[in-house]
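Job type: complex structure
Entries:
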Amino acid sequence: MSYLVATSLEEALTYLRDSGGRARVVAGATDLYLKDLPHSLVDLSALPGASVIEEADGLITLGACLTHASAASSILILSRATALAEGCMAIGSPQIRNIATLGGNVVNAAPAADAAVALVALGASAVLVDTGGRSREEAVEDLYVIFNRSAVDSTSEILLKLTIKSCGTGEGSAFTRFAPRRALSLPLVNAAARVRIENGCFREVRLVVAPVKPAPTRLLQTEAMLEGMAPCEETWRLVERAASEEVEVRSSLLRCSARYRNHLVGVLAARVLQAASERAREEEGVDGR
Amino acid sequence: MKTDTGTVKVPIGEEKDFQSAEIWARVTGKAVYGSDFSLPGMLYGKILRSPYPHALVKNIDISGAESLPGVRAVLTGAGLQCKKYGIAVDDELPLALEKVRYIGDEVAAVAAVDPETAERALEAISVGYENLPAVYDPDKALEEGAPQLHEDFPGNTAWQRDLRRGNPDAAFKEADLVVENKFTIPAVHPAYLEPISCVAVYDPYNGLILHTALQSPDSVRAIVARVLEMPLSRVRVIGPAMGGGFGGRVYGNLKLYIISSLLAVKTGRPVKLELTREEEFTVGRPMVSASIKMRMALRRDGKILAREADIITDNGAYSAQAPWVSKTLSERNDSVYRLPAVRTRLRLVYTNKVPTAQYRAYGNQAANFATESLMDMAAGELGIDPLELRLRNCTREGDTTVHGLQIESCALSSCLQEAAKEIGWGSKKEGRGYGLSAAIHANGSLVFDKNFRGSSALARLELDGRVTIFTGEQDYGQGTHAAFALIAARALDLDPQLITVQSGDTLSSPYSTGALAMRQTTIGGRAVQLAARDLREKITRLAAELSGQQVALEKDILAGTSGVPRDFAAVAYYYHTLTSGLNLTGEGKFVPGPADYDESGYGNISLTYSFAAHAAEVEIDRATGALTVHRLVAAHDSGRIVNYRSACGQVYGGVTQGIGMSCYEGYLFDGGRVANPSFADYRIPTSLDVPEIVPLFIETEDPAGPYGSKGIGEIVMVPVLGAIANAVADAAGARVTDLPLTAEKIYEALAGWECAD
Amino acid sequence: MKKQVIIFQLNGEPAEIHIDPAKSLLKVIREEFGLYGTKAGCGKGECGACTVLLEGQAVNSCLIPAGKINGCSVETIENLSRGEDIHPLQKAFAEKGAVQCGFCTPGMIMSAYAFLKSNPRPQPPEVRTAISGNLCRCTGYKQIEAAILAAAPEMDKENKG
C-alpha cells in the first residue's frame, strides 16, 4: 500500500486522479482495518483548513477532518450547534474521539453515526469537490445510498467541509442516545433535534432519529405536527406516539427487538425535543433581556 | 445457637497495605506477558478451524500448504496418534479426526516463519466437509432423535446428577407457601484482557518447555505430558506475566498448548501460537450457560422447608471443566441458608456450540441469582422484610449444612445486617430500589484431588539474609505474593519487603493445583506460614549452634548474650559454609485430613468457608427500563484480612465483574455462531458503568486459615447478581429472571409485554 | 507489499523506518522498536490497552496506520520513566492498588497522562470519562481513579517545576 499525507487539495485530487480509482480518501482512518485495504490512501487530515471551526454571517464552517474531540470542546459548537457537540461526545471513547473526524462519520455512512445524526438535525450541508474539479453542495442526509454506503465515492471525491446555520435567538438543538453501556458502545437509538421557538410555539422543527433508514432519518410528519404547538407535557406525549408511529425499525440480535426500538424512538424523540426547546427558550430569554 | 463473632472493619489506614515487587515492572511497561514473549528462531503457528457447526471431515489436502516457502510444518488429526483427553471427561482430540462439532473446531495447524506466511498456508489447505444436522438448544439436544455429538455420550448428556437430601416431598406438602420461577443465565467469558498465547520449545534431550501463563501450570503440565506421551519430568511450564485469569487460565486453552507443543516437536523450533480477541470469544472457553427451574417451600413464619431445582447446563461441543462447574452450581448455594431438604436434578448437555469451562465463582453466582430471587419473592408473599427472612434462615457458626459442610467460622448474619445498614435499608430513598443477597464459597476442595488436599512451600534463606518463598500458588495481580510475603513476614518477624515470593516455574516450585477454588490464601498461605516457621526454628537453632548459647528471635534480631550473630545473613553464611553451598531452607507441608465425603457428595468438602452479603441500590428509568446501579455494599466474612489493599481490590474488581454479568454480559448465538465475539458487543463494564462500591470486612477469626484468614477472590462476585436482581425487582415492581438485566428486558417487565419479537 | 519511509519522533527522539504504511502503529512500536510496554488487547480500538500519545493526544495505536504518523510525535509508556525515576502516575498506580494483572496499566497510564496534562485539577467524574476507553477487568477502576486523582497535584508540581 502507499500512503500519502496530502498537504494541498490539488495534491490530493491529482493523486486520486492518477490512481484511476485505486486510491481512496481517508481522514481519521479509525475504520481502515475493518474493510479490505485499498491499493493506496490519501490522508486529508493535514490539508489546510481541514480542521477549521469558524463562524461568519451566522454560518458555521467546519473542516471535514475536525475530530470529534475538538468539535465536542469547541465553545462555538457548544453554544451555537449544541447537538453536534453532544453527538460528538457520545462516540466510542476518548481515544476514538481524538482521531475520528466529522467527515469520516458522514462518509463512512453508518446508519446511527452520532455526529451525522446531529448534523442532519442541524440542517448541515456538505461541500464536496471531485477529481474533475467539480464542486457541489449537498444536504448531509442526501449523501446516503444504502446501509453503510455513502453517495460520496472516496476514490474520486472529497468531502471538504460542513456548514451549519448557527443557532440564534429562539433556537436550540440537542442530541441524545440510548446505549447498553456508557462508553465504547453503539446506540440502540439516537436522536437529535433543532427547533425554533417563536411566541412560545414550535417553528421550523428538525427532528432526526436513527437507525431507521440508511441515512439519519427526519421525522417529517412529527415535525409538521409540531408546527405551532407549545413545548409542554401534552406535546411530549403526542410526540412520543407520533414518532414511534412514523418509523419502521428492525430487530437486531445484538441490539434489541424492533418493538423496543420503536418504543425508544418515541421516548428519545420527545426527550431530545424537550432538551432542544429548553435551550431555545434560554436563548430567547437571554437575548430578549 | 452461636452468635456471630465478627466485627466491622472498614479498611482505612495503611497498616495492612502491602504491594509485592512485581508492581515495578507492571507500572513501567516492562513486565513481559505471554503475548510479548518471543525467542530467536521462533516460528508462528496458526490453526485452521471448522466453518461448520457439525460436519464430517471427508478429506484434507495439505499439499499446497506444505509446498509454500517458509512453511515448516502442517499438522492434521490423521497425522497424529493422540488419544482422547479432557479435564473432567476425555472427549477432545488435539485436531479433529473424523468430525467437527462446532464453528471453530480445530482441523489443521501450521507453523511458518512469520504470521503472514502461516495465514497463507491455512488458505492453501482444502478440507472436504459433509454437513450433519446440528443442535444448539440443550432442550432439543435431549430429545429423542436429536443429532448426536459424541458416540461415548449417548443422548448428548455429558454429565448428570440427581440429588436428594431430607424429605422434600413432605416439605412441599406441609408448606404454607411455595415460590417458583425459571431463571436463565447465558454463557459468560472471563474476558481477561490479554488473549492467551503459548511459546513451545522442544528438543529431544531436554524435553518440552511451555512459556505460558497459567493459574494451574502443574495441571496443564500433566495433561500435556499425557497427551504427548512424554515423561512428566520432561515437561516444564514457565509462566510469563499473566494478563488476567479469573478461572479462564486455570487450564487456559489446552488445545493451544498441545498444538504448539506438537508443532515444536515436529519442527524442532520454538513455536508461538496466540488467540485473537475474536478467537477468545469463539473458541476460548466461557462458563456454561444455565437454565434453572427452582422452587422453594416455606412456612408462614418464613422458615425455609425445602428447595427443588431442575437445572440444564449447556456444555457446548466439549466438556473441559463444565461438569465440575455444574456440580458447584447444583449444590454450593444450598448452604447459605438452613435448608432441611433439597432435591436437585442437573443435566449437562452437549450442543454444537463453543465448548465451555469455568469462570470466577464456578457457577455459584448463577445459583445465587435463582435462590436469592426466590427469597425476595417469598418475602413479598409472606409480608416479611427480605432482611428479616434471610436472618431467620441464614447459616451460622457451628452449623453442619444440608450438604454436610461444617461451618467453623461464619459472620453471615452480621454481613447481612451491616450491608443492609450501610445501604440505608431502614431509610430507603424514594424512587430507588433496594436488594439484598447472601453467599457462601468454599476455600479450596478436599475432594477435587483426594491425594492433594493441601499445599507446600519452601522458605529459603538467601546469603544476604533475605528470604525467598517458593510456592506452586500463582500470582497474577490478585495479591497472592503480597499475602504470602505478609504471612511469612509475620512468621519470621521479618520486614515483608525483604521477602520475595517465587512461583510460575514448574521446575523450581512445589506442586500445586494453583490459583483456583479460592484456596490460595487459606491453604497455600498455611503452607507458607509453616515453611517460614520451620525456617525460623532452623535459624535460631543454627544461631545457637554458631554462638554456643541460647538464642531468641525477636523483630528479626537474634538475641542472646554476647557473641551472637545479630542478623540472618550471618546464619545464612554459616550454613552455606557448613554445607559447602546449600541455603538454609524451611519446609512447609500443609496436609489437611481427608474429607468424610460420600458417593452423593455429602461431606465437608473444604477446609473452611467464606461468607458475604451484598446490598444494592438502583434506579430505573420507567420510560425506557434503563438501569442505574448507584451503590453496592459488599460485606464480607473472609476471616482476618491479610492485606486490605488487595482485599479491597478483589472486592472492587469482583463486584464489577458481578455487575457485568448482571447487567451487560452474555454470549449471543446465531445458530451455532457466536454473534458477539468482540469487546464492542460482549460488553464488560467501563469506568463509567461502575457504581460506588463499599467494601465492609466483618472479620472472624478462622481456626483453619493462616492467622485467622479466609479466601475472598471468588465469593466477591457471587452475591452481586441476586442483590441487583432484587433491587431491580424492588424498583420496577416486576421481576426479570433472564440475565443480563438489560433495559429492554426491564422495560418489557414494566410494560407487561409478553416477550421480545 | 510496498514500503515507504516514515520519519517521526518516538519518545522524544527522531525515528525513521522503511515499512508498509498500512502496518499499525501498535505493530510498529512493538515489532520495529521493541517497545513491548504498549499492549495488544483486541486490535480493534475496543479495549484501550494499546493507548499511546500521538501529537500529545491519547489514541488507540492499533487503529493508526503507520503512514499517518509521518512527521508526528509519538509517546509510549517507556517514555514516562528513566531508570529508577518513575513518573508520579506510575508511583500512584503502584501505591494505590491500581494495578492487578497490569495488562491494561500502560494504556491506562497513557490515557491518564494525556488527560492530566490538560486537566491538572480534575474532578472524579472527569477522571472516569478520561479512562472510559480503557477496559480493565481486574480492578473495577476504583483504585485507578484514586491513583489518578492522587497523581494530579504531583504531576502538576513536576510540570511547573
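Summary: Residues 166 and 341 of chain B are 4 Å apart (CA to CA). The domain at 34-132+195-242+249-282 of chain B is CATH 3.90.1170.50 (Aldehyde Oxidoreductase; domain 3).
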